[in-house]
Amino acid sequence: MTTSMTITAKQQKWLKAFHIFFIVLWTGGAFCITLCQIFIKPVSDGELIGMLKVLHFIDFFIIAPAASFTFITALLYAYYTNWGWFKHNWIIVKWIICVIGIIMGIYPLAPSLSAMVETASRLGMNSFLDKDFIFNFNLTLFLGAFQSTTIVLAGFISSIKPWKNKLT
């Protein structure tokens, strides 16, 4: 399926550059949150609250916009280039990874991180005694690591372009 609208080769390069830029921001932010949860061990109320507020900032002001613009540039890329929407199996896999990543970020990850900030603001280090805080911490750690890994996988899929067979 080709579109009636096309863009020039130079415009396509710019679109690709922006798409890659937003993917890098999304991936970097997701890895940053996961790695901070693994390696930063706060020892005071202030450190815990500060760390969680920074992670919350990264989630809302870096990851969320980057994921949104990744999706938007992917839509534009599919519409304006010959790669299309579902022309190859590897493109379908990338769409699935992108949509699942965005849904995971909107529903379990962002609310869990917000709840952790709220709990830490009330309880400080005693948050680690709260079962909901521990659940949210582990959920954010596990799903964040999964999301980071799948986004990187999408990058490899985009570079290697396996399963190049056409569906139509």
Structural class: mainly alpha
Q: Whole-number radius of gyration? A: 19 Å
Distance between the termini: 9 Å
Mean pLDDT: 91
Helix-residue proportion: over 70%
Helix and strand string, N-terminal first?
HHHH
Q: How many helices does DSSP assign?
A: 4
Strand fraction: under 5%
How many discrete domains? 1
What would you call the quaternary organization? Answer: single chain
Give the number of DSSP strands: 0
The best one-word shape is elongated
Mind describing the biggest β-sheet?
A: none
Low-confidence stretches: none
Any overview of this molecule?
79% of the residues lie in helices and 0% in strands. It is mainly α and 168 residues long. It has one domain. Helix 1 packs antiparallel against helix 2 and helix 3 packs antiparallel against helix 4. The longest helix has 36 residues. The chain is elongated, with a radius of gyration of 19 Å. The mean pLDDT is 91.
